[in-house]
Amino acid sequence: MRVFERPKCSVTDPADVVLKVTTTFICGSDLHMYCGYMPGMKSGDVVGHEFMGIIDEVGPGVKNFKKGDRVVASALIACFNCWACKEQSFSLCETTNPSKETSVACGDRTGGIYGYCHLTGGYDGGQAEYVRVPMADNNLLLVPDGLKDEQVIFLSDILPTGWHANELARVGEGDNVAIWGCGPVGMMAATSAFNRGANRVVVIDSQQYRLDFLKSNLPKVETINRNDKKVYSALRDLFPHGPDVAIEAAGFHYVPNPLHKVEVAVGMETYTSEIINELIYCVRKGGRIGIVGDYITYCNHFNLGAFMEKGLTMAAGQVYIHKYWPTLLSKIESGEIDPSFVITHTLPLGEAPKGYQIFDDKVEGCVKGFQDDKKP
Predict the structure, then answer these.
(1) Sheet arrangement for strand 222-225
(2) Mean pLDDT, to the nearest integer, of 237-260?
(3) What is the rounded CA–CA span in Å between residue 60 and residue 57?
(4) SS3 179
(5) Is the C or the N end of the chain the one with fewer CB within 10 Å?
(6) Mean of per-residue pLDDT scores for the chain
(7) Quick check: 50 and 157 in contact, CB under 8 A?
(8) Distance from the Cα of residue 262 to its chain's centroid
(9) Would you say the C-alpha torsion 297, 355, 54, 56 has a positive or negative sign?
(10) In this prediction, what percent of the chain has a pLDDT beyond 70?
(11) What's the alpha-carbon Rg for the chain, to the nearest Å?
């Protein structure tokens, strides 16, 4: 990753706006590209899909926004006209991702994403001073007066993603929930679970500082460090039959098993099934699984037999950001949810490479790296 200068973007379609970015974040899924796990990157690509700012230029076809409006951008780009968008499955949009590679890998195209390689459309991302927003009337959220950037920026991705994990697993009143991954998305999933009425929430990770950080900000949560305890035994000590719900918020970035490391390295699989298998093994019989960690194409050694024999249900997918905006913005305005607690670092845009390094290396207590135009 490097910082470079290029000409300012401009409106290229009547439905576009150009956004002057005021706040942008490094997402955990950006690390897939940083570490070379994500195909489809090209030299000079601008990354970043969590951003917000002030509208600087408005296309003649834009009806809902004007120059000077303060807005959050959805990380995923939706047309609002195709059958998927009409059923509010916005990340499955039929028209915003021209990539043929996604069709080959998945059997269908999925929606476009800012700054997330050419598999998702090759759109320039928001870790920049300015960014072009296509179909702006659909893909921007007007920020109410009185809310700080830090309160609303996570409506771009991680807060809706944490909520989506709970929707996929149908988390409701009285549920006991286990969440794999104590990164920002896992933290948002835990916050969302309690907001939806979960009885107990347990978060599993290998980084004690992250678990301690979450506990200090969400005292009701329980934690398991997988380096200290066997996850299955620890969960069965808490829940004799297993948790009702298992949420995967870690993704394919981590491959601890030596066999999987070899198979990934030689192209026999593109990610490991280890974490998914652990969810299947640990959740109670008849339990529900929600997957929001990123996975691309195929894995080996998937425990389909246990999934079937235990009578489990599993749902997965990229988040339907626009669908959850009204609910989550209302909860932020009322104070029910304040996602800003995950912010640990602020950096100027020019220090983005350092931000990636400390986030990926998990040093300096980094949970979420923050870049803004207010730091020179």
Answers:
(1) 222-225, 200-205, 176-180, 245-248, 288-291, 313-316
(2) 87
(3) 10
(4) strand
(5) C
(6) 89
(7) yes
(8) 27
(9) negative
(10) 92
(11) 20
Question: How does DSSP assign 33-92, residue by residue?
Answer: HHTT-SS---TT-----EEEEEEEEE-TT--S--TT-EEEE-SEE--S-SHHHHTT-GGG
Classify residue 244 as left (phi > 0), alpha (psi -120 to 50) or beta. alpha
Report yes or no: 291 and 276 within 8 Å, Cβ to Cβ: yes
φ and ψ at 86, to 5 degrees? -65, -25
- The single residue listed with the structure tokens 């997918």 is 317
d(C-alpha 285, C-alpha 349), whole Å: 48
pLDDT in tens, 202-216: 999 999 999 999 999
> Which of 187, 139, 138 has its CA nearest to residue 166?
187
pTM for the complete prediction?
A: 0.92
Condensed to tens digits (0 to 9), the pLDDT of residues 258-301 reads: 887 788 778 788 778 889 999 999 999 999 999 998 887 788 89
β-bridge mates for residue 53, sequence order: 21, 71
Name the amino acid, one letter, at 135: M
Number of C-beta neighbours around residue 329 at 10 A: 21
Kind plus residue range of the DSSP H or E element containing 352: helix 352-361
Q: Which amino acid is at 201?
A: V
Q: What is the pLDDT of residues 102-159, one digit of tens each?
A: 777 778 888 888 877 667 767 887 788 999 999 999 999 999 999 999 999 999 999 9
Nearest residue to 138 (alpha-carbon basis) of 20, 13, 15: 15
Helix axes 321-334, 158-168, angle to 10 degrees: 110
Tokens encoding 259: 């066999």
Q: Quick one: 147 exposed, middle or buried, by C-beta within 10 A (0-12, 13-18, 19+)?
A: middle
What's the confidence (pLDDT) of residue 116? 75
The per-residue b/e assignment along 337-370, b for 16 or more CB within 10 angstroms, e otherwise, is bebbbbbbbebebebbeebbbbbbeeeeebbbbb
Is the distance from CB of 68 to CB of 54 less than 8 angstroms?
Answer: yes
